Amino acid sequence: MKRKLQLFFFAALSKISRSKSDAILWANSQNELSPHTLIAAFVQGVVVFPTMRNHKIIEWLDPEIRGVLPINQFKMQDGLYKLLKKERDREVKEFEIKIDANFEETIRACSKPRDVKGITWLSETYIDSTIALHQLGFAHSVEAYQDGHLVGGVVGIAINSYFMSLSLFHAVNNASKVAFYYLMLKLKADGFQLHDLGMPNPWIQQFGMKSISRQEFRANLLKAMATPCIFTKDIPALTFPIAGK
Predict the structure, then answer these.
(1) Domain end: 13, 48, 63, which one?
(2) For 64-75, what is the mean pLDDT?
């Protein structure tokens, strides 16, 4: 009887959701958010997104189009190219780059509201779960410092050769761009295969983002998940592709 009721309600849920896969995503989103559920989602290529107005509602999203950054073919705009070229030649650097030096402070800075409405998608439960994943070696941060103060950074999740960028922030101009560029250099240096951005993001376009289909993304995800790789604490050498290309 229990099994028959489950089948009946799942059929109804699938009809309302318009597909079995969407029904499963909705059912998974009802689980309590935790380090385990986050990893379960990332392994499936799912974007876990607490709603911005009510952090008690969690969405599991499997978008038809994914935004990815080619690890061996990323680019930079002319302004960032000029800034980093000057930075490379300075004796005293404007930005000091660190890896995983202060993950919690970085993700909490990422969670600060960026508009007058005071809205942020990074809920406290999501932050706590991600901090736990950092302690387990899954979540990482690339951080930019100025005069000893954290002024920019990016956080993400690494599972073998797959990396998903979650969020970034800046407290001074260009700090997030510099940190994000170092992240791209790092993923290349460490041998990662897939840099996932979730849904296409206009801000990332400046670095050469590509939009690919769900099917292509899943194929690339499986290859990356099956390829061993370690996110090291080594700071990559500052190198440049052709600006704007």
Answers:
(1) 63
(2) 90
